[in-house]
Amino acid sequence: EKASPSPVNQQRKEILEACRKKAVLKPGFFSLTVPTGGGKTLSSVAFALEHALAHGKKRIIVAIPYTSIIEQTSKVLKYGTDDDDQIQKNLKEGKYLFGDENVIEHHSNIDPEKENHKNRLASENWDAPVIVTTNVQLFESLLSCRSSSCRKLHNIAESVIILDEAQMLPPEFLRPILSVLQGLVEHFGVTVVLCTATQPALSGTIGSEQAAFQGLPECTEIVDSPPTLAKKLERVRFHFPSPETPRISWEELRDEISKYPQCLAVVNTRKDCRTLHSLLPEGTIHLSAFMCGEERSDVISAVKRKLKEGQPVRVVSTQLVEAGVDIDFPVVFRAMAGLDSIAQSAGRCNREGKLNELGNVFVFIPPNPAPPGLLRKGEDAAKEILLSDLPGSLSPETFKRYFEIFFRSAISFDKSGFSKDMCSEAENFIFQFRSQSYKFRLIDDQMQKSIIIWYRGKRSAVSSTEYIEDLRRFGPNRFLLRKLQRFTVNVPARLHENIARQGMIEDISGLYVQRSPGLYREGLGLLPHPEQWSEEFLCF
Questions:
Q1: Which residues are CB-neighbours of 131 under 8 A, at least 6 positions away?
Q2: Which of 121, 157, 310, 398 has the largest CB neighbor count within 10 A?
Q3: Which pTM value belongs to this model?
Q4: Strand-strand pairing, 205-206 and 213-214
Q5: Which residues make Cβ contacts (< 8 Å) with residue 148, sequence separation at least 6?
Q6: With 70 as the cut, is the pLDDT of residue 256 above it?
Q7: Measured distance CA(132)–CA(136) in Å, rounded
Q8: CB burial class (10 A; 0-12, 13-18, 19+) of residue 309?
Q9: Mean pLDDT, to the nearest integer, of 259-282?
């Protein structure tokens, strides 16, 4: 509240005040629809705190779709900021938000150097005032049959669950997810907050006739008028292509991007990311999931520093920057995709409202369509919206129409067979808990394989090769595996088999580890195809 009186900060204060007023309402389902950069995280936590005090709730659980933004969110909740320099200054002055001891991170990518016995037990049991976790941890625990996962369930009762970036809930699992959430609210004293800039249509009837089901009961909107708020917090102008606009070539896109010294370009696939990056001027930064978590954190930290210092910086990235990564560019280019993805990319443009004019978000039709599946369905739904309108801004009503169209195209909302396993014989008290537990996987482990790569961190100076040597000498243990998680890249199973045939990885105690320097290149990440490997690096 002591922030400078800019228009953005003034709106954030108004959102906080709305959260405090609505917090006294009875527990249930709430939605917080706030444009990206409007302070959703802290506003939702402010609501949760006031609501917990008013109704005797025991803890706050913040669930996030990606591990890549959990570290950032945890820092904000612990110290009130994710800026490392400001954190050190705050600690010296004895200033913090909840502090280290009250915020527990529980996810697969946590830095084990920050763990001790006490907070490891607390993370396993969720025995702390504030829990920051992933959607995978939350929902797979709720539908698990393993004692290790179920150990925390009693601490979910009487809590406030904040689903950050709620639009990222996977459509193919919506039926079990929404059913479980309703059960928590109706029978276990839980309040759920759906927090996003692009609120999905999760109430009433969802989907087409073939796959339709009843979603959540009506949610109470925390902000009185989301459309008015969206207009007040408008910081970008969208430039959409008309439906008949031809596909742009990568060379044409390169020429457009090169006009701007500070610019972010977001594309749909890792292959497109590499192709575009290779055409841009030297010094352009590449960012994708083919880079390990440690390098991605290093790169994002370097990008933030360059932006803060006003240095030239161009970034080409996949979708991983869209959900919650706190960077602020004056110009963003986004490949045609779902409107929710486009809006999330736009949230990296003029995020703090520091420009004297609106930022510019240029949506382009890339040489290749989005890959089949949810990305393609999102692109098709967006194009259907754009047939009737080419908006300069995106309103909550537009997103509601978009998600209705998007959900109608879904083949199934119950990939795990939840209705059959848990509902069909419920009146006879017959439930297939174990079967559902095995089938409910938000991330399909069978389709992905992990490779531990060689990388030395820039901020921590920690090298994965030291951990790999420990793995070779002593074998795997829980602590070592957690360390190696930061240096892991997941690839499709078929690609993994091809890399193994080329002799570029080796099996150490059941884990696949990089064998040749040619497989991973700093700044680009994993190079999965033989034609990308330098001959000097090949091992035989």
A1: 59, 60, 61, 62, 103, 104, 106, 123
A2: 398
A3: 0.83
A4: antiparallel
A5: 124
A6: yes
A7: 12
A8: exposed
A9: 94
